[in-house]
Amino acid sequence: MAIPLLDLQAQYQSIREEIDxxxxxxxxxxxxxxxxxVEALERALAQYADVPRAVGVASGTDALLLLLxxxxxxxxxxxxxxxxxxxxxxxxxxxxxxxxxxxxxEPKTYTIDTAQIEARITGRTRAILPVHLFGQCADMDPIxxxxxxxxxxxIEDAAQSIGARYKGRPACSMGHAGALSFFPSKNLxxxxxxxxxxxxxxxxxxGVRLLRNHGASETYFHQIVGxxxxxxxxQAAVLLVKLxxxxxxxxxxxxxxxxxxxxxxxxxxxxxxxxxxxxYHVYNQYVIRVPERERVRKRFAERGIGCAVYxxxxxxxxxxxxxxxxxxxxxxxxxxxxxEVLALPVFPELTREQQDEVVRTVKDHLSSL
Length: 369
Prior knowledge:
Number of helices: 11
Strand order of the largest sheet: 1-9-8-5-4-2-3
Number of strands: 14
Oligomer: single chain
Distance between the termini: 23 Å
Number of domains: 2
């Protein structure tokens, strides 16, 4: 039974008429850059995240980069984050001109270990950038407390976690600002790249709006050197349709995760996702830890079942970050996760029959050890 890791065709077919209608509307308007669709999406997602301000940009990476620049994270400054995340988190810090300072993860949640952050704060630290990984928020209260005591900016990387909550508070509503990604594989994915900054801070909003449009508040009059990072109207139109379905898709993902949890409970060798009692998990990925991961990946491939490793190499081990000077074994929990984690299909349209085949494949792998 062929089972994809993510079935975007199934999602599209379920809302095809709605999507096709808004795409046609955009083409009839010929308003492709900015305009009412982008403004409507900004308003809708600000409300969804329970913040007053939102700014559409060209990608989730740009959302991080422009936020960091607007927050003053530039040459001579440091930004604290995790080495167990997608490259864009640390890449944006470097491209803003700052230095990433890594802190190991908490091994159960895969999010930054808040107990280790304060020791890494220096006079050069400008911001803390926690990552809400796989669909679950980082432990935010200790981070917010540290930021207040040390006068630091908190930027939430919620690229994988739109709709997630921490103690009832939505992702991106707790720090000074947050970054969202609309890469097609996200729970709210577009028809290409796209991103959004959400914030309570008027100065950060103004800074990002300026930076995304070549540093110009009006055409041909440039206050600063910015870049071209505008969200396309076509993406905004598609995302406005999908936003209406997002909560239902999240609940389907959570139901699929609960079914996996139940089935894997009989397999003590499989470590299923830990959900903090403070968190509402939205399962952009359902990530297990399993013995001899590469053997089970091969078995999945033989049976036509999609799976993925997020992430195979900790950022401090990447060639481009060797000048940061971290030893290979500097972050043991991040390294262990890289060696052991495996993401299984959890998309909303996944059937119980498909899930049973995934579980059966893991069971067959364990029986062969």
